[in-house]
Design a protein that fits this description.
This protein has about 110 residues and is α+β, with helices and mostly antiparallel strands. It contains 2 helices and 7 strands; from the N terminus they run E-E-E-H-E-E-E-H-E.
């Protein structure tokens, strides 16, 4: 089952990973100082993931394709893994669109 998993980084910031039903991480958030902000980030992913214009398709220095999901205000909500091809990246975007709206939230910081 798809899920958002909230964890704490070494620097004590909160982050979330959106995992597909197969357990693969398809989106990783930025760091948040407060858990409440992390939860707002998850809600933002659920909303903004449905609009294709919110996905910024990019190429990394290592020539790998990846994408970032942005909120309405242009802030980056999350970043994908690196992909070996543009078609693979598009599959990743499709997976976020499909999985984010119904994903449960699992808080591993409790």
């Amino acid at each position: 089952m798809e899920k958002f998993v909230i964890t704490k980084r070494v620097n004590s910031e909160y982050q979330f990973n959106l995992k597909a039903g197969n357990g693969e991480i398809i989106l990783t958030s930025e760091g948040y100082v407060q858990k409440a902000s992390c939860l707002k980030g998850i809600e933002s992913v659920k909303i903004n993931s449905q609009e294709d214009s919110r996905y910024d398709r990019r190429v990394a220095k290592n020539e790998k394709d990846y994408f970032v999901l942005k909120a309405r205000n242009g802030e980056i909500i999350g970043k994908s893994q690196y992909y070996s091809s543009k078609p693979s990246m598009e599959v990743g975007i499709s997976s976020v669109k499909t999985n984010a709206p119904t994903a449960e939230i699992v808080d591993e910081t409790l």
